[in-house]
Structure formats: C-alpha cells, structure tokens
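Its record is retained below.
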Amino acid sequence: MRRLIAVPLAVTTAGAAAVAYAAGIERRSPRLRRVEVPVLPAGSSPLRILHFSDAHFTPNQRWKADWLRSLGALQPDLVINTGDSIAHPEAVPPFIDAIAPLLERPGAFVLGSNDYFAPQFKNPARYLLPDDDERVTGPELPWRELREAMSDAGWLDLSNNRGFLKADGRRIELVGVDDPHIERDRYSDVSAEPDPDVVLTIGVTHSPEPRVLSPMSDDGCRLLIAGHTHGGQLRVPFYGALVTNCGLDRGRARGLSRYENSWLHVSAGLGTSPFAPVRFSCPPEATLLTLVAGGDRS
C-alpha cells in the first residue's frame, strides 16, 4: 500500500518542481547563443548580426531590461528585432530605454501581433492544438509610439518594406513584412530580385510562415530571420518543440536550419505572454549570428 501511494506522490512532487522551475527560474535565465552562417561572398570578412525577438516587455521587468542593455557591449555590426517587443500599454518607454545601447548600432525591425494588441487570457489547452487561425486580441497597444521610437533612432522599419543599411561599411539589403500571424503581410508589394551592388539580401518576418519564407527565398534572400515561435516555449527533451504556432514545422522552431535556397534563423525569444509565464527546456535567448564567406550569389 505504501508503494502505491509513494509513486503518485513522487510524480506529483516532480511535476510541481518542474512547474516551479519553468515559471520561476528558466524564464528568467536568458542566454546568448552564437551561430555561424555561411552566406557571404567568397573572400568576405565576418559580419556580426545580433538577433533578438519576442521580448513581450512589461514595466518593472528589471532582469530583462538589464540583460537587453548588456547586449550593447557586443557591439554588433547590425541589430535585427523581429517583433512582439511589448505586452503592456506603458511598456514603450522602458523598452526603448533598455535597448538604448543597441539603438546606437545600425538596425532594422518588424512588428508582431503583440505590438499591436495586448495579450488576452486563452485556454492553455489551445497552445497544444494545431493553429486554427482564430485570433483572440486585446486592446490596441501604442505600436505607433514603438515604431516611431525605433525609426527615429535610425532603425529601418521593414513592415512590408525594402531598404538598405550599411553594416561594417558594407551595403546590406533588407526586405520584410508586417506580421503574417494576423495577416498583415504584403510581400508581393515589395518582392524584387536582389540588388547586384549589395553583399547580401536578408528577409525579415515576425512569424515564419512558409507563404512568406518561400517567395523570399525564391527572390534571392540568402538569410531569413524570424521569431514568434518562442522555440515551442515548452520543449520535451530528445523530442523538441510540441508546436510552432505557425505553419513552420517543429524541427525549425528555433535556431539555424536550411530552408529551400536560404538559411533560416528562428529566435526562441526573450519573453512570454503575461498569461503563460513559463518556459521549459527552452530558455530565453538572443543570438549573435556571425556571417562568414560561403554564400552563393547565383
């Protein structure tokens, strides 16, 4: 009888410990990942891109603000923010203050659905089900203020836009879309062949939807950068992400992978929804992408 009682008790205790770890420790333990991507023309020197995403910033998140601010010491050649930066109507000023050192570097951004609308409580079970395309959104957030603050600092707004930046003295072409998760993407409006006078064309999106990634790759974007998935947020050891919350397959839920003619990097992001403040086997992250020679312009 004691053994029969002890087993469920042990399972319950282990489950409670896992929840406490996921909610109290892992989600506040950010990591900087370093990845090498062979996309530059032969003979090129390395180019460093800092990619961060899904901060879901709210006021008084001191640990997150301090960590974001510390990334400025990396002095990347280019910074790319793939959206869902805020999650509260008063989050813009503290978020901009946190990324102030990064705003001194060349940069570009897109917005995500949670920049436009405040998060709402949802049935947690929906997270584990296939995406049914139904969107539950809260009140509008100050996304215009967010966009203007980053644009005024010199960052390029890539929401259904194409433009150029100089990084380490080299001309980079970037093309992006507004968030496909809420069907604001209009890639056909900005589709074009790469400029022949750039060293690289990069495609940027918040949600890595294949309907956006594939035409970007077809157009010659050798590097695609996205966020949104949270890396699955809850990952099973030796199995990986349970879901991606988009049309991308689970195997590409975070990190670097090949996608058709391109390299794809998906960030697992820094934050979580205030209504689902847990991460398991998927700590918060930003990534320093070191681009090296090996790319093919053909």
About this structure: The chain is about 20% helix and 25% strand.
